[in-house]
Specification:
This protein is an alpha+beta fold. Helix content is 39%, strand content 19%. The protein has four domains: 84 residues, Phosphorylase Kinase, domain 1; 173 residues, Transferase(Phosphotransferase), domain 1; 97 residues, no CATH class; 101 residues, Nuclear Transport Factor 2, Chain: A (Roll), CATH 3.10.450. Strands 1-2-3-4-6-5 form a six-stranded antiparallel sheet, covered by helices on one side. A four-stranded antiparallel sheet has the order 12-13-14-15, covered by helices on one side. It is globular.
Length: 517
């Protein structure tokens, strides 16, 4: 390749980078006498027409952006039947190369992040989505001048999709939860990816550990919370809001740019308010409500200038709300059952999210209702306690408490969706493996199905197939229905298949394949 002339104008000097979308070469533009970066668009065999469309789309997208923090596209040429992109040459290192030396200082990460956020915010305003924001696509030059590169898989949000192969574009480690569940890329997923990139830069590791099986990575992203970063310092707030698991409440890229810019411009050593939506399994101290609860119970005493009659021993129930209506019943249960009865009655009422907001255990700012209970207690308790408590307390508590618990116990609502994504991902992974690697493909069948098919028969079938694509995948129980297109020397044929799956560790193996249409 060195000294080869691309497009009759760009002479190759040396390779300067390589990624999923192709190799980048440093070239000399012999017409304008300047250095440029030239990239040949790579892809699967037999889709040169798609290569050309992808290259033209990348050039059109990046050229429309024209932002100082995005790599500029100068030209697109055809050479040896393949499209080549001619881009601005940026002497630099990638952020991933800088991170290889260890975690980066917070102020440096904020400075780089603010520049990248500015370019992406501009792209989003034009309706562009990058789709592969990650450390390897961020170039950092002198004085930490940063540029986002490789809009090779970017597309305008209103463009038609080029293909329906069912294959994901992008780097799974930096996928947002909604992308991991199979949603379409959107501006919100770019925001998450940049937040995850900043997280990795300050922590020295990505928010989700890399796994050999990408489907396992997607499952973790779809269903597990991110561990709170320990080195982020003042970056904790921006990272937390950029990595909000709910895309509807996640910051926009413009908000992220503004926050990061303020952080960069803040005086050195200044104090920064650090709040974050990222969960913190160990340090739950940011929520101060549970601790004051036992001390807050007697606070209402001076609220009306009178001292209420002492109440039964309080049970700690942080941030639970109660209904006021069964006052006599609650007090009767307290008298007969002590603290244990109090907990049972709490369980009866704690499941009501619409409970009177003026009655909150341990809330000194309640509207006065807590002081009304002690006023009615001396008159109603002696008469109603013996009659109502034995009948209602035992009958309601055993029924409601056990039935509510199984529904609220799961800490995640995503696993069913994540399971669907894992099943579809297993099928896409399989058809992305065959027919180029039959050993790896055969290993994705269950032992039972391997015996049923037979290796000779398996090799004989796939030996006739040049390429295969998958589209319209959907789950049906433990099976995936998909439209499969087989490409041979004689043309192509599309069939609808039902592929039965069996869970194996963190992924699925194929246990049967039936053509149903």
């Amino acid at each position: 390749m060195p000294n080869e002339l691309i497009g009759g104008r760009y002479r190759i000097e040396r390779a300067v980078g390589q990624g999923g979308m192709g190799t980048v070469w440093l070239c000399q533009d012999e017409l304008l006498n300047r250095q440029v970066a030239v990239k040949q668009i790579a892809g699967a065999s037999g889709d040169s027409a798609d290569h050309a469309r992808r290259a033209m789309r990348e050039a059109r997208t990046a050229a429309a952006l024209n932002h100082r923090n995005a790599v500029s596209i100068y030209d697109v040429v055809e050479h040896d039947g393949a499209p080549w992109l001619v881009m601005e040459y940026v002497p630099s290192q990638t952020l991933s190369e800088l991170m290889a030396e260890g975690p980066l200082p917070v102020d440096r990460v904020a400075r780089i992040g603010a520049q990248v956020a500015a370019a992406l915010a501009s792209a989003h305003r034009l309706g562009m989505i990058h789709r592969d924001v990650k450390p390897g696509n961020i170039l950092v030059g002198e004085h930490d001048q940063a540029k986002i590169s490789d809009f090779g898989i970017a597309r305008l949000s209103y463009d038609d999709r080029l293909t329906q192969t069912g294959l994901m574009a992008g780097t799974p480690t930096y996928f947002s939860p909604e992308l991991a569940r199979g949603a379409d890329p959107a501006a919100e997923s770019d925001v998450w990816a940049l937040g995850a990139t900043l997280y990795a830069a300050v922590e020295g590791r990505p928010p989700y550990p890399r796994q050999t099986n990408p489907i396992a990575t997607l499952q973790a992203i779809a269903s597990e919370p991110v561990e709170r970063p320990s080195r982020a310092g003042p970056l904790l707030e921006p990272i937390g809001h950029m990595m909000d698991r709910d895309p509807s409440s996640r910051w926009s890229m413009a908000q992220a740019e503004e926050a990061l810019r303020r952080l960069v411009e803040a005086p050195q050593g200044g104090s920064h308010e650090r709040t974050s939506v990222l969960p913190a399994p160990a340090p739950t101290s940011p929520d101060p409500t549970p601790e004051p609860t036992p001390e807050a119970t007697p606070v209402p005493e001076p609220s009306r200038g009178r001292e209420p009659e002492p109440s039964p021993p309080p049970a700690p129930a942080p941030r639970r709300r109660f209904r006021i209506l069964p006052v006599a019943l609650v007090l009767a249960a307290l008298v007969l059952l002590g603290a244990g009865g109090y907990l049972l009655v709490t369980a009866l009422n704690a499941d009501d999210p619409s409970a009177d907001p003026g009655v909150a255990t341990g809330s000194p700012s309640a509207d006065g209702s807590p002081t009304q209970e002690p006023e009615e207690t001396p008159e109603e308790t002696p008469e109603e306690t013996p009659e109502e408590t034995p009948e209602e307390t035992p009958t309601e508590t055993p029924e409601e408490t056990p039935t509510e618990t199984p529904e609220e116990t799961p800490t995640e609502s995503d696993p069913p969706v994540a399971a669907q994504a894992a099943k579809i991902g297993a099928i896409e992974s399989y058809f992305n493996t065959v027919p180029s690697d039959l050993d790896a493909g055969f290993a994705q069948l269950t032992p039972r199905y391997q015996q049923e098919v037979g290796r000779d028969s398996y090799n004989g079938f796939w030996g006739t197939i040049d390429d295969v694509t998958v589209a319209n995948t959907r789950t049906e129980g433990n099976a995936v229905i998909a439209d499969i297109t087989y490409v041979t020397d004689g043309g192509s044929q599309t069939e609808t298949h039902r592929l039965d799956l069996v869970r194996q560790g963190s992924t699925y193996l194929i246990d049967g394949d039936e053509a149903i249409g």
